[in-house]
Task: inverse folding
């Protein structure tokens, strides 16, 4: 069974925050090839001034419904999401529901046992958006889609869970899918430096939620998992988490695909982008450190959210720092930590140096970071560098450059989009401890940059299962074993891979890059969309069991 119409909501619709934005925005075009404008994305109206850089308002889109919705009290704007395919989207203003949150939470407790008593922080904001999105779904279905037999509402992450349950109760004709991209309690266990994997079978999700002050997020996520017509997650490793911590086995695993429409089509384009990226990187790194980098420099990088342990930022730094203690390194290494952090802006002293074309031979004060951090004493990257006495020097073979800003192409320093900067790297390293999927390594190989990931990343397990169990860096992706107890061994392994890679000839590195790009083609959405078709069928079949007239 396939939907006649899909409504899909996420906090990251038209709101670029993290990996879920990549999931939805790259998948949209593939679904549109089947559904056209019979798929509608629902996202939050986040800004008071209604500015939305990834959204173009179009008041002619569903204009009659929009007018009726506004008349009935919904604050919505219709338009197009500025991504490949330009799918239809609705932004909903949810702020007016805060004054009714106690009644809303009471209804969720009475109907589904959702415990919102311990709510704090972003729980309220997400829940009010989720509720408002559900009202949009209800209104849109009742006024436009009642004649459509197969309608699916797909909700992503705990932030949309409360609304999914509202739809189940009030619009039972709609089939519901709930996807957890990472369980809130699993992420919290890992983020609190507890051993998640060695003791997985010993953890009780409800008990840990109480211990870690996560009761409300865990509760709404767990109840959504149990009440959705189809419960899904993104990888086998997270499915294990769901079974143990949510007491629910996913109906379908939905691996995250990729759309390569923005990958350079020709070798000439790729070389041009790579050359520009490396010149920019080396110029800024020289102004910061006083070291003179040439094109033989091996550029390694890591990126993602600032989850120091979960994303393996600690292991990346440790591996790079261990390069200092070997006499086998015969090339310069520039290690980039591209992780948005709490910062005030580009350093004035760095700006001044970059105003000229001078090549520098002396470092700036704190030559490891490009921006002025708001709290450098407690910043974990800077703290680890200090603890290990890792300081950039003009004569050092290994340099670390911490870039704590969003690389959107208009950051004021690089002014090159993140994807273009990836092209300037030789090797991307993501030694994740907690990684339900892992878009960053998939993005890297899509641009022909080989990468290192781990057996604790969903993407890493997919590579081993689908491509090559004992894959080497020469295949484009190296998956290293990571457990709760082998930190030092894994860090040494990464150090050794960097050393080995630095000895490859230019021709060999080009061939490795080609293999990486070939591997990425196996993870395109056209290959993975079949799993979604299965989820839609499961949800619609379950809906039909509710014994109502469809």
Result:
């Amino acid at each position: 069974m396939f939907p006649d119409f899909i409504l899909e909501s996420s906090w990251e619709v038209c709101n670029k925050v993290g990996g879920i934005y990549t999931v939805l925005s790259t998948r949209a075009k593939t679904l549109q090839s089947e559904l056209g404008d019979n798929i509608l994305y629902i996202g939050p109206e986040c800004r008071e001034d209604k500015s939305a850089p990834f959204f173009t308002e179009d008041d002619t889109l569903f204009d009659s419904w929009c007018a009726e919705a506004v008349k009935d009290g919904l604050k919505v704007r219709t338009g197009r999401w500025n991504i490949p395919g330009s799918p239809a989207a609705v932004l909903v203003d949810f702020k007016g529901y805060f004054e009714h949150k106690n009644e809303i939470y009471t209804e969720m407790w009475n109907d589904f046992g959702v415990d919102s008593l311990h709510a704090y922080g972003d729980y309220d904001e997400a829940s009010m958006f989720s509720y408002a999105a559900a009202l949009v779904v209800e209104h849109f279905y009742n006024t436009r889609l009642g004649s459509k037999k197969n309608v699916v509402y797909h909700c992503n992450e705990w932030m949309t869970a409360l609304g999914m349950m509202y739809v189940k109760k009030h619009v039972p004709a709609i089939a519901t899918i709930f996807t957890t991209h990472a369980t809130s309690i699993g992420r919290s266990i890992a983020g609190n430096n507890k051993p998640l994997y060695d003791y997985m079978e010993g953890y009780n999700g409800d008990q840990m939620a109480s211990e870690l002050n996560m009761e409300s997020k865990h509760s709404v996520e767990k109840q959504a998992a149990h009440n959705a017509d189809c419960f899904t997650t993104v990888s086998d490793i997270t499915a294990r988490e769901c079974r143990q911590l949510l007491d629910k086995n996913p109906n379908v695993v939905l691996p995250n695909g990729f759309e390569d429409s923005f990958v350079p089509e020709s070798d000439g384009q790729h070389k041009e982008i790579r050359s520009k990226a490396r010149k920019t990187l080396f110029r800024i790194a020289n102004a910061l450190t006083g070291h003179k980098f040439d094109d033989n420099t091996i550029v390694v990088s890591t990126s993602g959210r600032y989850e120091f342990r979960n994303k393996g930022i600690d292991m990346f730094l440790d591996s790079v720092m261990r390069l200092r203690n070997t006499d086998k390194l015969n090339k310069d290494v520039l290690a980039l930590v591209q992780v948005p952090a709490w910062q005030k802006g580009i350093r004035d002293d760095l700006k001044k140096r970059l105003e000229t074309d001078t090549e520098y031979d002396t470092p700036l004060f704190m030559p490891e970071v490009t921006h002025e951090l708001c709290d450098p004493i407690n910043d974990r990257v800077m703290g680890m560098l200090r603890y290990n006495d890792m300081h950039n020097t003009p004569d050092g073979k290994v340099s670390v450059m911490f870039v704590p800003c969003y690389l959107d192409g208009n950051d004021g320093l690089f002014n090159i989009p993140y994807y273009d900067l990836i092209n300037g790297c030789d090797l991307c390293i993501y030694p994740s401890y907690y990684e339900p999927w892992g878009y960053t390594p998939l993005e890297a190989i899509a641009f022909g940059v080989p990468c290192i990931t781990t057996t604790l990343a969903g993407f890493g397990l997919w590579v081993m299962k689908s491509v090559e169990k004992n894959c080497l860096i020469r295949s484009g992706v190296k998956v290293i074993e990571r457990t709760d107890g082998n930190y030092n061994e894994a860090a040494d392994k990464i150090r050794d891979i960097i050393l080995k890679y630095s000895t490859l000839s230019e021709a060999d590195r080009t061939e490795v890059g080609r293999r990486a790009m070939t591997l990425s083609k196996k993870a395109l959405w056209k290959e993975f969309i079949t799993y979604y078709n299965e989820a839609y069928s499961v949800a619609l079949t379950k809906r039909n069991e509710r014994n109502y007239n469809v």
